[in-house]
Amino acid sequence: MSTPPPPPAPSPRTPESDARLAADLGAIVGRRHVRSHGSELVVYESDGLPGYRLRPRLAVFPGTREEVVAVVRLLAREGVPFVPRGAGTGLSGGALADDVVLVGLNRLTRILSVDAGNRLAVVEPGVVNAVLTRETAARSLHYAPDPSSQTACTIGGNVAENAGGPHCLKYGVTLNHVVAATVVLPEGDVVTLGTTDGESEGYDLLGAFVGSEGCFGIALDVTVRLSPDPEAVRTLLADFGSVHAAATAVSGIIGCGIVPAALELMDAPTIRAVEASVYAAGYPTDAAAVLLIEVDGLEAGLESDVQRIAAICGEAGARAVRIASDSAERARLWQGRKKAFGAMGRLAPHLVVQDAVVPRTLLPEVLDRIHEIAVKHDVMVCNVFHAGDGNLHPNIPYDASDAGMRDRVERAMSDIMHACIEAGGTITGEHGVGLDKLAYMPLLFSDATLDAMCRLRSVWDPRMRSNPGKVVPVRSCREWTGLAGVRGRETLRPAGQ
Amino acid sequence: MMTGAEGGGGTVPLGGAPRSVGVRTQSAGVGAQPVGASPQPAGVPPQSAGHDVTPELGTGRPPDDHPSPPSISAAQPADDAELARIVREAAASRTPLRIAGAGRWLDAGRPVAAARRVGLHALTGIVEYVPGDLTMTARAGTPLAHLQDAARAEGQFLPLDPWGDDAGTLGATLATATAGPLAGALGLPRDIVLGVSVVTGDGEILRAGGRVVKNVAGFDLVRLMVGAWGTLGAITQATVRLRALPERDETLSIAAPAESAHDALAIWLDRFRAARVQPLAAELLDPALARALEVGDGHDRCALLVRIAGNADAVAAQRAVLAELGDLVARPASIWTRLRAAEPAGGAVLRLAALPTALPHVWRTARELAERARDAASGPAGHAVTHATTHAVMNAVMNAVVHATVARGVVRVCLPAMDERALHALLGDAAPERMTRRFERLPAALWPRLAPSAVSGALSRGVRRAFDPHAILNPGILGAEDGRGAHGANPRSAPELT
């Protein structure tokens, strides 16, 4: 297999070279948009996962597309690795810059165009997900992928992670909503991927870029598909005396041919956490599990679907099925779900989040297994997940300063991950691999496949400077055993030098 | 004649609907061969493995006169390991390979310089089907019809309905990313695939993606393989997502306003697009196609074929909305199968596309092209009949037809067989303005002249090298890598670089 040429060793870093780099970046974006002091960089040490703290060497915040390109080209000239970052809400450590340059895209917030007739919008990467929906609402359009962090996360970040969200069950994930993107590659070339008429030919490079977690380059603009607002929406809350019963209802609903807009399951610990918080949604605190179900579409067919779903829930053993009577109630029910992670913050200072997917038919079995694991390691698992597509978020609140607890939590998480993989699932449904799930990649993919991913990455980023050390374990790259910007046990010199 | 067992309906006929078989004869360049649904290779005559790289115009032969060049050997591996071995050997000896599915369905005419043909039709069968998960894993050589039958038995269907018919294999459908009427509502092939196994150009077996419906682990090799025409890896197996059969599934035709009435069609299409309906499919047919499919009803106008599905209330409501656009006539589900197969034998097929709001303009352009084609077609009228099958549509469609997938703004033009020079003159070197032009089928000689290379950009070249370093998998099938060919196309204006 053809080898990327061994890259030049990075020039030795000195305080002078750091200062010069900061000054050069400042010349492009304005000095006040470069952060180089420890105290200014602390806030960028983490993303959405409190468990990691890695400080960038510098942080630069370009304000325009031209500045982004100039910054990337400067970094290329200097051979400096960098990490692109959106809003920093990620849950896999993907935007962590371990002593490398952080490039923040959050200042590029313009919606460049909206074509309501063709339901397309062109946006800069820093546009907040919910803002796009807000800005297109007047045309009865919205942007469908709705991760729970949507009031903060950016479209650029969504593209990097191929973000999902509860409504992706019916409407698809980011990949299904991105039509084109202009990308600056790490070596500085600017390319257009995809075509607006959706009739591209050749390799689906846009498809490869979506979900590449910032390792292939930085999007300068993204053309997204907008969705028409459904004519009508109904939201139901069903509560069950057991998680099994809820999972049975899930299978029944999917199996009867209805495609709900969303189908979310929360277990007792999650419900109690939510109801004790400011996000309280009126969930019954004595339920073993609740299902939040939404159907939407033409008004005419909806009532029939709602009745069918209620019946299925009843047959599965639901104690009660409540239908939201107005949009305020609908919003409150959803708030409880969307803020569930936040609510867990009340239980303990830290939270470990997982994002495995298992075949939906195996949900009851896997949930039992997770419960066994929780008991075995004496940890509390709060399950909240997109039951409709088998995407679980078994979250564990804990106190990281308690070493014993931390240990048990890590082992529990590892056991849970193994159980999900054994069930034929995957390690991440929407959060991405980032740093957090690197260790599990060899459990999912063969050496040959991991090496192929490395080779693919080298095509986009020959010197592997864009978000180095993420997604694919470096030791899986047969030809490339050293990586600038990745500290620790990795060597800093390329193979052969 | 049908060689196989049942022909796949390929669509979503409810119980009782006739399952007519959409059959296409092979186009120029491949021995005319009856299309069957049988996955078994028994009795398959050797087919020509490919075409000369730069054939001269005018030397294309009639469909049934293409013997296998003696130097071209053929292999039919029985499993992934054997395919991997064949590819490894080919890589070591730098022997280009022509990777084909069952070879029964899609022949785009794309020239491939290959010394050896590898048919994957023995890689057949469903590996795993979990109806409760709505996912199915099958070997690449399995005909779509077989998968549809299995899904239908569980009240489900595979939302892949490529133009042509369901004798085509899963692997070929994905490798060529061929879509059909359902794509506007249910997604393109890239949206339906969850995972693939492939053998790359150095003989490695890779498994990308997975079997679950949400998966972002690692870089997306699955998307790269779909639509790569085998050049990054021969797909040997794929996991796809299914849908539940709707409770009700109706197809209606509506006569469109006369095209002669200024802008009437455009306004009417706007009304349709704004209407409170969510069709599974909506195809605009030109008068010739409407007549051939017997939905013309005696007037010389375009017809809109609309498929609405869902529960009884939803379908009734949508029917009422559509009734405001004109008189509705119910049509059998089989009409979609017939539409997919409705092409003049042996002719070129192209797609003109722009954004959906520009459909009227693209439609007019396509109709004018079809008119000119009818004037230019020089093949004898009886020619198509010689190779026609029992299917009524083939006998009726001997001239150019035009139809459009309304939701996507894509117009498909199916041209009759004609002399290559005349075809080149008809099409011109460049796409008409304000739309893109893609070819589904052309005589081999015209590919390099009319179709810009799809893979000449730096990223594409790099991706290709990463997966097929010795360029032995279907070399040239997506165009020259250096951008040569396509008269007037500048390699530097390849779509990637801005």
Task: Walk me through the structure.
The complex is a heterodimer of chains A (497) and B (498). Chain A is globular, with a radius of gyration of 23 Å. In chain A, 33% of the residues lie in helices and 19% in strands. With 497 residues, chain A is an alpha+beta fold. In chain B, 26% of the residues lie in helices and 18% in strands. Chain B has an eight-stranded antiparallel beta sheet with strand order 14-11-13-12-16-17-15-18. A five-stranded antiparallel beta sheet of chain B has the order 4-5-9-7-8. In chain B, strands 1-3-2 form a three-stranded parallel beta sheet, with helices on one face. In chain B, helix 11 packs antiparallel against helix 14. Classes of the chains: A alpha+beta (497), B alpha+beta (498). The interface between A and B is large, with 90 and 83 residues.
Radius of gyration of chain A: 23 Å
Radius of gyration of chain B: 22 Å
- Terminal CA distance of chain B reads 51 Å
Percentage of residues assigned to helices of chain A: 25-40%
End-to-end distance of chain A, in Å? Answer: 20 Å
